[in-house]
Amino acid sequence: MKISKNEIPMAVLSQKLGDKIGGRRVRAGIFTTFTYDPGFFELHVLPILFDQAFSPADKLRRIQLEDALRSVDNLAVYYDMSGLSQDAEPAQLDYRRISIRRNTGCFHPKVILLLVDNEEKEPEENDVENLPSQSLIVGIQSANLTRAGWWENIECSHFMEIEDREINPSPSSIRRDLLGLIQRIQKNADSDDNHSALEQIREFLLKQTPRDQLKLASYGGMFYTRIFYGQEKLSTWLTNLRFHRHDWNLEIISPFFDPTGAGPLIELIEVLKPKETRVYIPQETDGTARVTKQTYNEISEYAYWSTLPGEIMHRGRGKSAELLPPRNVHSKIYRLWNRNEGKDILLIGSVNLTESAHSHSGAGNLEASFLIDVSDEGYPKRWWLERLDVEKDRFISKGNAEEDDLDKAVIDISIRFDWGTNTLAYRLIEEKKQGFDVCETNGHFLFQIDNPRLNRWVVCGERESETIRTILQSTSFLSIKHAKGTWRIIVMEENMGYRPSLLMQLTPEEILEFWSLLTPEQRAAFIENRLPGDDPLLVDTTTGKLPDINTLFNRFSGIFHSFGCLQKYIEDAIEKGRPGNAEARFAGAKYDSLPNLLEKTLEKQDGDPVVSYVIFLCACQLYNTIKKKYPDFIKERRSRLENLQCLLEKLKAVRRKLLDEDMKKGKEFIEWYEEAFLNVATAEGNVL
Hints:
Elements: H1 13-21, E1 26-33, H2 38-45, H3 58-68, E2 74-80, E3 96-100, E4 111-117, E5 134-141, H4 147-152, E6 157-163, H5 175-188, H6 196-208, E7 218-219, E8 222-223, E9 226-228, H7 234-240, E10 249-253, H8 265-272, E11 276-280, H9 293-300, E12 304-307, H10 310-313, H11 319-322, E13 333-337, E14 344-349, H12 355-358, E15 369-373, E16 386-387, E17 412-418, E18 423-429, E19 436-439, E20 445-449, E21 457-459, H13 462-471, E22 477-482, E23 485-490, E24 492-494, H14 508-516, H15 520-529, H16 556-575, H17 579-587, H18 594-603, H19 609-629, H20 631-635, H21 642-648, H22 651-661, H23 667-678
Helix pairs in contact: 3-15, 5-6, 7-8, 14-16, 16-17, 16-19, 18-19, 18-21, 19-22
């Protein structure tokens, strides 16, 4: 009997992830991928992390995400340096983008790690005992961070959760595996990259989850869930888990194979000794098998080539869907099942049927797959795959690998731009010096590094830095031209709180109002309400100036309230381990930053001089308060705070304008008022 579509577990990946998060606040996140499309990730994957509605318009959605991301402590994407999607859109938002180039194989795991709070409310100040409990959502899948991976292909994925030991004191069977995988990921990247997100998740696993180790592979007839990440060869790993002690049927879904034979299939069969083995055959739309003739023939000696049910491959429902090309199968699934014991085991994730995927991670790829026992899930114990009725006679002439059609990074080079200091740097990990050109992606030459220094970050000159600063306003992609080849890279951007915002500058009144808003929904509505017609607030479409909004925020009570909200935001961010968020609002270049407020106040020719004076007084008071309460925060950012300090010095000019225009006889009163006002924050080294 053929299996039906409804008897194979299926779900929409984005919906599955959203349901798993369940509206909880994401504190830290890690995504790993081979192929990477930053634009798709930002517009269509990142919104899943937040319990709020986002605009369907791409530009407004990015602005809303720019604000929403501030609630996340640390977020990073790790991707293979050669894995930039051909149709990728550039990155624009503030999260870590860390490229990896391995000496053996490729960086191939598709992993999602999300640390979430289990309670919605923030704990009261200094209430350590009532900190919200946390959980770690662990997802492993076959899908890359691309449109094809999340929207078009047939992929596989599995999610599970590791809870705080206060909620669940039982040990997790994947804790040790996960710590090992995190270590491998970090070891694959450069040690001087910022791994704050990985460290935060690792800290949770080490300190907030039970440390007991499960010593058995199974209990009560059920195998424990495990993670394969190349600890050893896959066949050896399965042997150590005692899989060879059962009678199995084996079916394998893999879109990629070695070009010169059956590869690791022979070892799997020798270890597992299945009664029958079926292997999915990937095909072109014209029926050509996407394997070489040699591979086809050798695998035929050990297994039956097979297909998935046609209804799974269809792109929709009805007869019209049957006329469309079938969906591409990108899943990597190894299914072990039998009827006599009622067992059904799945290995799902990134492992293709290739030698590099089945090898120890030190000799081949870095991979990740979940091993899960679904015997009690009620799925029919029969074949998913259907044997081919007719032998294939058309094949591809050479191997078909996942990295085909991608730009191969032939040397390990990274480019980094620091928005806080406006400096550009490169890092070349090589044994031999050889120069390279830095170009735009259209091939336009920018500059040359003709005598590079090796194995460390090297700061470039002012001209090169300014060139890249200008380019980053529109794209995060550059092209590297080297004697060995040409390929694209993503610029690593540091201190993005100082990068000009995606949103045009607001008026001083609007910035003050924005500071006072308490919820993401209020802030999203505020932004959306200021985007009438053709998006006049967006950097690349603005032609005019926003009108001032005459609200209570024009008056002093509104100013004091807004600065109070800003101070609370900065202090909360510092105390809860998010200094980058505090710095972005305190000294950055975003639409709602303190320097932006001061600059717009100075630019406003028709502004009320009394209001301007009070704004600058509040800003000086805030600076002195933060400097007194958090001296290390100020000291560690001394060079990046120079612009803010220069702006605060403008208080003298604002004071003179006030006395000249409105209060020629009020000098003594102003001096008394200013001293009393600023005495709220007495600190050494006041800015005045």
